[in-house]
Amino acid sequence: MGDLAKGRATVIDRGDTLQIIIPGKKHPLAIFMSIFFCVFLIGGWSTALVTVIKHILEAISKGDTTNLTFILTWLIGWTIGGIFFLIIILWIWVRKETITLSQNILRIERKVLGIGKSRRYSLPDVKNCRLNTSAGSRNVGWGFGSWSGGFDFWGFSSAALAFDYGMRIIRFAYEIDEPEANYLLGLFQQRGIDVSPSPEVERRLKKSETELPYKDTGVEKTGWAGS
Predict the structure, then answer these.
(1) What is the pTM (predicted TM-score) of this model?
(2) Among 78, 98, 142, 167, which is most exposed with the fewest C-beta within 10 angstroms?
(3) What is the pLDDT of residues 104-148, one digit of tens each?
């Protein structure tokens, strides 16, 4: 039985900077499919690629350009397909979301091996940070129970949190459940962010007045303290 007091996020408090790292969920079927893709890439895809390249080089050396345009087009499509499968494998295994609060800046990143999307927001303009009530269903079995479940399976689940930024709604904190999202809201409110807390967050904040969930030592903490 796992530790019920641990969440999925890693919280790193360095005093003036708070960083939250949320690794991607690894569904069993997604892991199986990524292993299949690896075997396909190493075996069939790479063998076919090398064979076609050799055929093209031999044809050019002999001056035979028959069907060369078709073969080159096929080779380009085959290479793009292999790169696409590689991206899927990396996304399944090493994706992560990083939320950083520092110097009046909120930075939200979703990346694979340092490559991906990064957004920056002015903290004073972040308003009404809250649970994303429009998130829909999450954790639906294998991820085929609904459209949202299918996105869940591939790591595109609904965000757990949202905030108002000007005339836009920004959603973030993917692949965590509501209790952990409530805990993160409590951390944000302690940092002065405008939060619309749920009853659970209010209860945790009252408790934190006498007992902090962890000491502000600048030491990395994994998960979150259960009540």
Answers:
(1) 0.65
(2) 167
(3) 899 999 888 888 889 999 999 999 999 988 754 444 333 333 444
- For residue 214 the two structure tokens come to 């962890």
**Strand 17-23 versus strand 10-13 pairing type:** antiparallel
Q: DSSP 3-state assignment of 146? A: coil
Q: For residue 106, list its beta bridge partners.
A: 101, 121
Rounded CA-CA distance 122/104 in Å is: 6
CB under 8 Å to 58, separation ≥6 — which residues?
A: none
Six-digit token string for 54 = 């050799």
Per-residue DSSP letter, 139:
-
CA–CA separation, 93 and 18 (whole Å): 25
Contact 153, 30 (CB under 8 A): yes
- Do residues 196 and 129 make contact, with C-beta atoms less than 8 angstroms apart? yes
- 191, 205 in Cβ contact below 8 A? no
Q: What is the widest separation between alpha-carbon atoms in the chain?
A: 83
pLDDT value for 205: 55
User: Which parts of the chain are beta strand (E)?
Assistant: 10-13, 17-23, 95-102, 105-112, 115-122, 126-131, 159-165, 168-174, 220-222
Mapping DSSP to helix (H, G, I), strand (E, B) and coil, where does residue 10 land?
strand
- Quick: pLDDT tens for 150-182: 555 556 667 889 999 999 999 999 888 888 999
Instruction: Provide the token pair at 92.
Output: 């399944």
